[in-house]
Amino acid sequence: MSTETRTRSWSIHGRPEITTRYEILGRVGSGSYADVYRGRRLSDGLIVALKEIHDQQSAIREIEALRSLQGAPNVIEMLEYFYDDEFEEDAVVVLEFLPSDLEAVISDVKRRGGSITPGEAKRWILQVLSGVNACHQAGVMHRDLKPSNLLISAGGALKVADFGQSRLLQDLSFEGTTPYETNSEKDKASNQLTEADYLKELEFIREKSKFEDNASCLATCSTVDIDDDQLGSYTEEPVGAFTSCVGTRWYRAPELLYGSCSYGPKVDLWSLGCILAEMVSLVPLFPGVSDIDQIAKIITVLGNLNEQNFPGCSNLPDFNKISYSKIENPSGLEACLPNRPIEEVNIVKRLLCYDPANRATASELLKDGYFIEEPLPVEIDQLIVPTRDEADESSGGEWDEFRDVGSGPDDIDEFGSNLMGVTKTDKGFCISFS
Ligand code: ADP
């Protein structure tokens, strides 16, 4: 439909290109930049999620990432999308509908007073690793992995979702196909593009991605972090120049907390370590109330961060602005994961390394003997999958207090309750522990 004859609509309900193809059944959730509706595809009755993304940069990132990940295992499937930049309407991405997520699974297990068995944990972990591996192999760095972004089907299939903060690392080209077989039904349903169309679109998307992203993470950070959309080859080492203010604080890697702008996909592996620990212990591992408190929570468990365990850390932009007193007896990850098998704890340990170079990749972990030792991963259909509503009822709002601060704005006054003393120094602050 041409823009001349169309009337702009601010609501998904007033957009004929969508309402002639989907019946909108109701809103299922809202995120920071999006409203998500349950819909029925009129052609065949398929239930879908219609994600209306209000922020243009997030929309471009989500579409770009999901296009690169078509057919990837354990990654949410994008069926089609509606985006017309000239018309300045919100993008609407049509996704497979997934009624649950890992946050709901954790809340539900907690409500029942149970625990996730080692065999169940192995199946969930295998699925998360497979999804993250697919992202990294396709050159997509997610940057916002957390339990609520790992969506789950009624049958127990887990899919990495919400690519609104992702970045492409690989220079995509049509010389080779994507590493995954494309689903022919999906191709028919989606806006099939020719190579020339795709390259034109990619150029347009890159141009559009050159937004300034001036937020810095730590309140003391004085650097202006600009995601400069530098696309390099996939490497495990830091690439590009990115903003450090990404992701939800509890799952944010130390290099990001210290303001790095040249990090790589290993930031996702740190998040994964936090997620796996939360899944098996049923409580968030590092629930910081500010970025300064976040680092304090981490070092209380893992010990001080220094040149020995993270060579080069003293060059991170904010490293010298905040100093923490020496932690004589860090509690260690074992203490955070009581009664869990040592092999499981070891998987978490391989992810939660200060030095990104020492963090295991998803591909390495998938080959770990842990997954082929007894107890074996349970079958997917043996996993217990609550709906989000069941889990919400069960949590009774108990996590809301945590969640609010987990993603809230950073504030220099929020040092966190476990800190005893804050002293101003000529470079920034010194934090001492009780
Ligand atoms: P944002 O990018 O703004 O954070 P989200 O992707 O987190 O938005 O979506 C908001 C909410 O919508 C989620 O918490 C989830 O409950 C729901 N949701 C998102 N995607 C789907 C989907 N594919 N199927 C079912 N529900 C979804």
From TrEMBL:
One family name in Pfam for this protein: Pkinase
Coiled coil location: none
Catalyses: [DNA-directed RNA polymerase] + ATP = phospho-[DNA-directed RNA polymerase] + ADP + H(+); L-seryl-[protein] + ATP = O-phospho-L-seryl-[protein] + ADP + H(+); L-threonyl-[protein] + ATP = O-phospho-L-threonyl-[protein] + ADP + H(+)
Q: Where is the Protein kinase domain?
A: 22-371
Q: Does the keyword Nucleotide-binding apply?
A: yes
Keyword terms: ATP-binding, Kinase, Nucleotide-binding, Serine/threonine-protein kinase, Transferase
Q: Name one GO cellular component term.
A: nucleus
Query: Which InterPro entries does this UniProt record tie to the protein?
Result: CDK, Kinase-like_dom_sf, Prot_kinase_dom, Protein_kinase_ATP_BS, Ser/Thr_kinase_AS
Where, by residue number, does ATP bind? 51
* A GO molecular-function descriptor: RNA polymerase II CTD heptapeptide repeat kinase activity
What protein family does this chain belong to?
A: Belongs to the protein kinase superfamily. CMGC Ser/Thr protein kinase family. CDC2/CDKX subfamily.
- The entry's protein name is Protein kinase domain-containing protein
What organism is recorded for this protein? Answer: Rhynchospora breviuscula
